[in-house]
Write a sequence for this structure.
């Protein structure tokens, strides 16, 4: 951050955070219109979703070719691969 | 090419807004008024047009003066800033906008200097490219997937979570059969609409009011 913004007038540095946030707020342009194709997903959700899709595609190829025990072992490995990529997406919970 | 990251294109367009004292309300206010009423969900114009991951529109009144010792400068015109992360090449994307949502484009950009209208595809593309700024640095968290692929992956993520939750401890043979059926069912589902909030699932926080 400092290496990129150091060339800007009055940039206070990225720390302490209070002056940094004040600077950002001062030079910010409010957005008049904002659209995203997947409003329920964060950038990390999107990365995780593609990890799950890729793992599922691999398991699908295997599912037609192996016996039930081999599939159960592969399924367990699949669950281990994707378990940290299955977080809830949607609107963030709000108080009140 | 700085405008591109992988297969995703980072587009920035600055169009000068018409400065006409006789216009009431002024052209910049007419743009703001139109944008304020425009849907940001699945019936957004950018959801109807193909290939938009993100789109932003900003009416920029002037540059910001941060105080001494900076030199106080002003723009000669107000600008409409359009930023979009989109799939594919720029010409194809702009043509897709002009084909899908010409009335929205005209309603917004008719307040800009020299806008030729979306009906004349070649003139429209040439105008947008003339107003384009090259990106200096562009980072996309996921830069090798289209909008459709991402919507499909998010749908899969939700379905897989549900499948795993409901098949804990299942017999191996039944698990295999049901997995094959699950994948076939998943593939037959329609693609979620861009800009939609589905799938909706109630968020369980575990709080005492649940």
């Amino acid at each position: 951050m400092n290496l990129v913004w150091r060339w800007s007038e009055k940039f206070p540095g990225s720390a302490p955070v209070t002056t940094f946030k004040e600077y950002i707020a001062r030079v910010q342009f409010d957005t008049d219109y904002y659209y995203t194709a997947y409003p329920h997903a964060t950038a990390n959700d999107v990365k995780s979703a593609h990890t799950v899709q890729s793992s599922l595609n691999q398991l699908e190829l295997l599912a037609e070719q192996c016996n039930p025990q081999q599939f159960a072992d592969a399924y367990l490995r699949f669950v281990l691969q994707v378990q940290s990529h299955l977080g809830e997406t949607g609107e963030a919970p709000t108080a009140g | 090419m700085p405008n591109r990251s992988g297969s995703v294109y980072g587009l920035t367009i600055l169009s000068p807004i018409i400065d006409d004292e006789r216009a009431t309300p002024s052209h910049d206010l007419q743009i703001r008024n139109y944008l304020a009423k425009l849907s940001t969900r699945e019936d957004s114009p950018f959801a109807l047009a193909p290939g938009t991951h993100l789109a932003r529109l900003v009416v920029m009144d002037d540059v910001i003066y941060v105080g001494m010792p900076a030199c106080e400068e002003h723009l000669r015109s107000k600008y409409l800033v359009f930023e979009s992360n989109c799939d594919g090449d720029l010409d194809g994307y702009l043509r897709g906008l002009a084909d899908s949502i010409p009335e929205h484009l005209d309603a917004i950009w008719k307040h800009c200097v020299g806008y030729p209208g979306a009906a004349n595809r070649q003139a429209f593309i040439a105008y947008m490219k003339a107003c384009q700024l090259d990106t200096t640095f562009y980072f996309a968290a996921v830069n090798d997937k289209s909008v459709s692929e991402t919507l499909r992956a998010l749908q899969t993520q939700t379905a897989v979570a549900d499948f795993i939750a409901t098949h804990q401890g299942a017999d191996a043979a039944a698990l295999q059969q049901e997995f094959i059926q699950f994948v076939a069912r998943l593939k037959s589902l329609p693609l979620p609409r861009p800009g939609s909030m589905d799938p909706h699932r109630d968020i369980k926080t575990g709080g005492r009011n649940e």
The two ends of chain A are 36 Å apart (CA to CA). Residues 15 and 35 of chain A are 31 Å apart (CA to CA). Chain A has two domains: 1-34, 41-86. The beta strands of chain A are 33-36.
